[in-house]
Amino acid sequence: MANPLHREKLHHSFPGRAKQIDQILSFMGKPTAPTPPALFINGNSSLGKTSVVKAILSTVLGDTSPSHYAFLDCIECHTPRLIFEHAIYQFRHPPSVRWRYPADLHSQQQADQIMDGYAHAQHTAEADQSGSGSSRSSSNEDGSSPSQDPQMSDGSGRKDIDTGTTLVKNGEGRRKRKWIQDEIITSGPPTWDKCENINEFVEWCRRICADGNDGQGHASIHAKGSAYSEEQRQRKGQHDTRYLVLDRAERLRDNAPTLIPVLMRLQELTGRNICVIFITSIVWEKFRSKNGGYEPIIMNFPQYSKGETIAILERDLPEGQDKELYMRFVDLVYNVFQRNCKDLNEIRHLVALLFPLYIKPIKEGKIQKHEGLKLHRHIQAYFVEAMDKLYLREISSTEWVDRTLLTSSGSFKSKHGGTLGESLIARSSSEAAKDERALMNAVDIQNTFDLPYFTKFILIASFLASYNPPRLDLRYFAKVSNQGGKMSKRSKVAAAKKHGHEQLGTKLRQQLLGPKTFPIERMLAIFYSILDEEVEENVNVHTQIASLVSLRLLQRVTPMDKLDSIKCKCNVSYDTIKAIAKSIKFDIDRYLYDFA
Amino acid sequence: MDEFDSLTEAVFLVMPRAEAVVNRIKRKGKRGSLLTGGDHFKFDGFQQLTDVNEPWEATEIRHALFNKEWSLISSRIENVMLSMNTMVLSAIYDFVEKAYTQKMTRTVMPIQELPTGLIFAGINIPDHDLLFQQLAQILAAPTSPMIDTELSLDIPMETTQKNVNNKVVILQSKDCINLKAALKSMIQQFLGLNMDGAINSLESGLKLQNHDMFVLEQWYRSLCTPQEEKVANQQRQPTLVVIIQDFESFDQDTLQDLVTICSNYQDRIPFVFLMGLATSIDALHQGLPKSVLSLMQTRKFQMQQSSECLTAIIEDLFMHGNVSVMIGPLPMKQLIDQFMHYNFSVSGFVANLKYIVMHHFYANPLSILCDRALSSQSRALELLEVGHYDHIRMLPSFQRYVESKVEVDPQEGEMLLLDNEFLKLQIPDMVRDLQEYHRNFALVFEFLWFLQARFTIAILKKSKRALYFMALEGTLTDSTSISFLLNLVRKMNSNEMMIFIEDCLQFFKKSSRCRPKASVEEGNIMDKELLILQNIRDRMVELLGDISDDSVTSSSDVEDGDQEMKEGDDTEQNEEATQMKDSDRWALANGGTSKRVLNRQETAGAPIFIKKRKLVSVKANVAEGRQTRIAKKTRETVRIPKGALGTYTVLVTEVVDLFERLFKTYLSHHSIMPLHEVFYYSQIKIQQKAFLPQPRVSIQTALGQPELYLNCKCCQVPSNTAAFISPAEMVLSTQHDTCILYKLYVECGRMINMYDWFTAFGMILERGTQSDNQQDRSMSNGDESNTLAHKRSKKRGKVSMAAKSKSLKEQNLDQKEVQARFISGVAELQFMGFIKPTNRKTDHVQRLTWGNI
Questions:
Q1: How many A/B residue pairs have CB atoms within 8 Å?
Q2: Which chain B residues are Cβ-neighbours of A102 within 8 angstroms?
Q3: What order do you get walking across the sheet with B751-753 strand by strand?
Q4: What is the maximum span of chain A, computed from C-alpha positions, in angstroms?
Q5: Which residue has the higher pLDDT, B725 or B652?
Q6: Would the pLDDT of B159 be above 90?
Q7: Residue-level pLDDT at A517
Q8: Residue B472 lies in a domain
Q9: Which secondary structure element, helix H or strand E, spans residue B835, and what is its range?
Q10: Domain A4-300 adopts which CATH fold?
Q11: Is B264 in Cβ contact with A76 (below 8 Å)?
C-alpha cells in the first residue's frame, strides 16, 4: 500500500516512530498482498506501540474497509471466548453499525441504516478504485480510532452521500448499492455471534474472509455466499488481509496459554490472509511454548531519545502559550526528571501539571519571561515536591492543581527554602474558614488510622510473633515470679547473647527476612502476656483477629476452609507498629529481638 | 414426642399451645383480662410479671413504652449519624457531579484519568454497609443532600436545579472473587436499574455473556440516545458510579483489571469510582501497581471517626436527657469499653443499647412508670398493684427519700410508707423532679464543657464522654478538673473576666432553659442563677468603670514610682497580648463563638466600657490584672485604691462561688433523686452474657458440670463424698458420655492413649450398672479417686485387668455398646476441638486444650 499521503501523515503525528511505521506499512503492503502470519511488537510502556498500530490501521483501512481489522484488549477480553466473539463482531460489523439496537427499529433508524448503506457502497466503491479514496482520508484527520466513535463515521457517511450519488452514474456502483439495500432490508440489525472454541473461530475466520465484505451480510452467510458470483466476491475484497490486533498480549499467557500457538499460525489454519499482531511490553521469549510453534516477526519499539521526547512534548503545547518559553520549560523538566522517569506519559503528566506553576509568576508580573534563572529557582521547590508526591501519586492531579494554584502568593513567596508542604500547612490554618479545603488538607495530613484498644495489642502481639523467634518467647513473655514482672532488659540481652547471636547485624535477622508465619495460639499467648490488665477470653478477640485479616493487616497463610491451627503473618511495617505502640504507651522495642 | 424425633433437624421451635395459654389466663382470669392464647406473641414475647400480679394492660403499656422509646432512640441516632457525615457526603456528591462536567475548565491532561473518590470510613467494615447504602441513595437521588441543611456553602444553585443523573452500583468483595464475577456483578446491577428505554442485551436474544463489557456499553448508549431526542440538550448524560465498598478485602488483581477496563471505556462511558478504604492510603498504594494508579485521579474523603460518632450519640441521647431510659455507670462503662476496646462498631453499640432498653422494659415491673410524659392522669398509675408499691418501697433511693422526709415531716413519711394512694399521688411529682434534674444537669454540664473549652491549657482537659462518665459515677463534683477550672477562673485578669462573664451570660441566655417567659410560671431555678450572675456583672461593670477612671490618674504614679514594676508590666503586657490573641484565634476557630464575640462587642454597656478602658490605658489593665494575681500571691501591693481591690476580689469570689455551687447542685449524682432506679438501667450481667460471650467457658462448664445445664436429679452429688472434692471433679456414671470422657481427658497428658481412655470410660459405666444393681450398697466407690486408682492399675497390668473387666461386663454391659458410646463421645470432643489425631503415635490422640477457665 504505502500510500505516500498516509505515510506522511503518520510520520507527522508520531515523531520518532518513522522507522517503525514504515516497517509496518511495508509488511502490510497492498490490501490483497500476503502478509506475515504474525507480527510481534514489543517495547516498554508508553512508547506508542498501541497508538501507532491503531493509527496505521485506521488510516490505511479506516476509510476503505474498517471491518478488516479487529482491535482487542486482552485485559478486557479475559477469556478465549470473549476474544473470539469480540473479534468476530468487529470483523463483521464496521464501526458505523456496531451500535444499532436490535430491539427498536424505528423508521428513523432504518433510514439511518440506509444512509450507512450508502456510505458502505461508497467505501467499497473506493476500494475498487484504490487511490482515489485517499483524498477522503482527511475526514478522519486525527486518526483517532473511528471504531469507537460511530457518530463521527455516521457523519462522514452522510457527508459522502453527495459523492456517492455522483458515483451512481457508474453502473457498477448502482448495482452494488442496490445489493446493499436489499441486504439491509433482509438482514436487519447487527447480531452477536456465539463462538466458544478455537475450531469455531477458525471456521468463522474462513467465512468472514470468504464473505469478503464489511459485514453487511449477517444472518445467512451461506445463502449469500452462493448468491453472488466469484467475480463479485473477489471485488469485494475477499483476498484483502484481515488484521487481528491483540493489545496487552502478555495477558494471553495467563488467560489463554494454548491460544498463542494457534493464533501464531492462524493464517495457515484458515488458509486465508489473516495477520495477527501482538502488542506487548515483554519479550517474545516469554511467550514461547515448550511445543514450539511459528516464530512471529519481532519488532521492537526503542526508547525515545531526548530530541524525540521533546518533539512529542512540543505537541502538548497549551493553547495560547509562548512556544519558546514552553520549550525551555520542557527541556528543564526533561533534564530534571529523565533520570528517575523514563515513562513518556509520566513526563507529559508532570509537564502538564507543572507548567501552569512555571508561568504563574510571569502572569502575575513578578518575573519577566526572559529571566530564566529566576524562574528556575522559583520552580525548583515544586520539582522536589513533585518528585516526592506527584510521581508516586500520593497526590492526585486534581489535588495537586487545587493545592498549588490556590496557594496564595504570599505564603508562596516565603517558601523558597522550605518545602511546599510547610506552606500548605500554613495556608490551611489561615484559610480555616474554607472548611471543605480544610477537610481535604486534614485528609492529606492524616495518613494513619485508629484501631480499637485491644486490637492494637493484638496487632502488636502478631508483630512480635512474626519477628521474634519462638524459642525466646519464654524469656520475653513469661512472667518471672520472683521479680514480679517481666525480665529486665539486661537479662534479655544476655539471654539473646547466650544463644550465640550478636544483638544486631546477623545476616539472617528476621527484620531483613520479613515476617514469619505464626500459629494464632502463640499470638494469643503473647497477647495475654503483654496486656497489663486481665482480660477474659471472649468472642470479640477472635472477631478482631478476623477483622484484622480482612483489613490486610494480618495475612492468613492457611486456606480459609482449614479451621484449626490457623497461621498468620503480620503485614505491618515497623514504623506503623511503632506508631501504634506509642499511641497506647507500649514500649515495643523492649520485646523485639534483634531489631533496629 | 414423636414430632421431635428427627435425624436431620437439631433444633425445634415449640410454640406455646393455645390451651396452655388459655389455662394460664383462666387462672388469672379473675382480674378480668380478656386476652386469648393467640395474643401471646402480640407483645414480642413480653410477659406478665407474676411477682407483682401484673395485669395484662400493664404489660401492654410496658411493651408500648419500649416501642416508643426505641423508635425515639433509633431515629435520634440516625439523625446524629447523618448530620455527622453531611459535610463529607455532600462533598462526595459534588465530586461525582463535577467529575465530568468540570473537565474542560481544568488543565488539559495528556491522559484522561478516571475520577476516583477514596472514602476513609473507619476500620469497622460491617458498619460500612449502612453507610454506603446511604451514600448510594444520596448519589442516585436527584438533589444534593445539602439543600435542606444550612451547611450549603458554595454549591451554586444551578447544580441543584439540574437534573442529576447518576447510576450507582455497589460492588462488594464477596461478589467479586475474580474478574469475571466482578464484571458480571457490576453489569447486572447496572442493567437491573430498569431504566426506561434502555436495552438489556442479555434479555434481547443476543447470545452475549453476562460479563461482557459490550453489554454495558450497549446499554449505556441506548440509555443516552433516547434522552437526547426527548429532553433538552442540557440534560447531562448519566454518570455511572461504581462503589467499591471494601477495598481491602478485594482481590487486588481483579481490582487492577477492573480499573484498567473501566479506564479503557472511559471515553465511551463516564465512570466514577468510589473506593471505601478502611485503613489508610497505604492500602491503595500497596494494592495497586503504578500503572493502574496513574490511571486514577484520586480525591480523598474522610468520614467522621466512629469514636466521635459515639460521643455524639451519647451526648444527644443521654447528656441532653432526650430519652427516658438512662444508662447507669456500669452498663455505660461496658458499652463504651466494648466500643473502644474491641470493635469501634456503632451498629454494635446500637444493638447493645437496644438490648438494654428492651431488658429494662421486659423484666422491671416499675418500668411502666418510665415515661417522661407521666402525669397524675396517666393510665399507668391506675394499674399499679400492691406488688408495685412494695417494689417502690424497696428501692434504696425511695428509702433514703423517706428517711429524709421523716426527719422533716414524720407524718408524710409514714403516709409514704403505708398509704398506697398517697404514694400514687406523689409519684408524678417525683418523676417530674427527675426530669427537671436532667434538664438542669444538661445545661450545667454544657456550661462545664464551655468553661473547659474556654481555657487553652491542655492538662486536665477531658473529653466530653469522660466528663459525663465521671458525672454518672458521681465523682465529677469532687474531681480535680472542676476545682482546677475554678482556679483558672480566679486567676483571670479583670479584662478577661468581664468578657468571660459576658460570655457566660450569653451562654445561659441562649439556652432554652433560661427564657424569662418560661420562668414566670414554672419558677425556673436556672433563671435565679442567671439573675445572680447578671447582678454580679452589673456590679463589676460599675466597679471596673470606677477603677479605670481612677487608674488614669494613678497610672502616672505607677510609672514613676516603681521602675521594676514597669518592666514587669511590660512583660505582662506582652503576655496578655498573646493571651488575647490566643483567645481570639480560638474564637475564630469555633465559628459559633466568633459570632458571640461579635455580639459582645455590639451589645451596649460592658463592651463600651471595655473599649473605653482600652483607650484609657493599657497599663491600668495590666496593673489590674496583676492585682488579682497579687491578691493571691501577696507579693507586693500596688498603688491602687484598696477599697476597689477589695470589692473586686469579693466579686470574683462571688462568681467562683456561684459556679461552684452550680456544679455542686446540678451535677450531683443521680442517685440522690428518688425513683431514679425506674429510669436508670444499671444491670450488667445479662448484657455481658449477650454481647461478650465466652464460648469456651460455656462449653467447659457444660462438660464439667452438666447438672448446671441439665438440672437433672440423677447427677446430684452423693451426700457422703468428701467435702474437698468439688462437683466439677466428680465423675458420675449417670452423666453424659461426653462429660465422662471430658473429665477423664482433663486428667491426661499431652498424648492420650485411646485404649486407656476407653477402658477408664468402660469402668465408669460399669460402676454405674453395678450401683444400679446393688443400690442398697454404699456408693462410696462412686468417687473419683477410685476411678483413678482403677485406671492407674490398669496401665500396669492391662491384660489381666482387661480380662477381668470383660468378664464383669459381660454380665451387665454390652461391650459393643460401650465402644459405640465411647467413639461417639470422642468424635464429639474432636469436633469441639479438644483433641486431634496425631501421626506421631498411632493409637494416641493429641490433647489441644489446657487449663480450665
A1: 190
A2: 199, 201, 204-206
A3: B751-753, B844-847, B835-837
A4: 112
A5: B652
A6: no
A7: 93
A8: no
A9: strand B835-837
A10: Rossmann fold (3.40.50)
A11: yes
Whether the CB of A432 is below 8 Å from some CB of chain B: the reply is yes
Same domain, B27 and B108: no
Contact A184, A112 (CB under 8 A): no
Residue B106, C-beta contacts closer than 8 angstroms, at least 6 positions apart? A398, A401
Return the residue of A nearest to B835 by Cα. Answer: A564
Closest CA to A243 of A95, A84, A37, A89: A37
Q: CATH 3.40.50.300 residue ranges in chain A?
A: 4-300
- Chain segment A138-181, per-residue pLDDT in tens: 333 333 333 333 443 343 333 333 333 333 334 444 444 443 33
At residue B56's C-alpha, the angle toward residues B53 and B59, to 5°, is 90
**Per-residue DSSP letter, A136:** G
How far is the C-alpha of B802 from the C-alpha of B795, rounded, in Å? 10
The reply to whether B231 touches chain A by the CB within 8 Å rule is: no
A99 with B218: Cβ contact below 8 A: yes
Rounded (10°) CA dihedral B337, B341, B342, B348: 30
Give chain B's domain count: 4
List the one residue out of B159, B312, B287 whose CA is nearest residue B234: B159
Q: Which residue in B107, B266, B301, B692 has the most chain A C-beta atoms within 10 A of its own C-beta, making it the best mutation to test that interface?
A: B107
CA closest to A437 among chain B residues = B91
B604: in domain: yes
User: CB distance from B177 to chain A under 8 Å?
Assistant: no
Which chain A residues have a beta carbon less than 8 Å from that of B338? 540
Which of B116, B210, B212 to probe the A interface (max A CBs under 10 A)?
B212
- Is residue B273 helix, strand or coil? strand
Write down the residue that cell numbers 418560661 correspond to.
B518
> SS3 of B149, please?
coil
Tell me which chain B residues have a C-beta less than 8 angstroms from the C-beta of A455.
123, 342-343
Q: Give yes or no: residues B620 and B734 share one domain.
A: no
Q: What is the pLDDT of residue B405?
A: 84
**Judgement on whether residues B526 and B640 belong to the same structural domain of the protein:** yes
Q: Which domain holds residue B22?
A: 2-43
What is the average pLDDT value for chain A, to the nearest integer? Answer: 71
Note the ipTM here.
0.76
pLDDT digits (tens, 9 = 90+) for B299-347: 888 888 888 888 888 888 888 877 888 888 888 988 888 888 888 888 8
Check CB contact of B394 with chain A, cutoff 8 Å. no
For residues A222 and B342, the model is more confident at B342
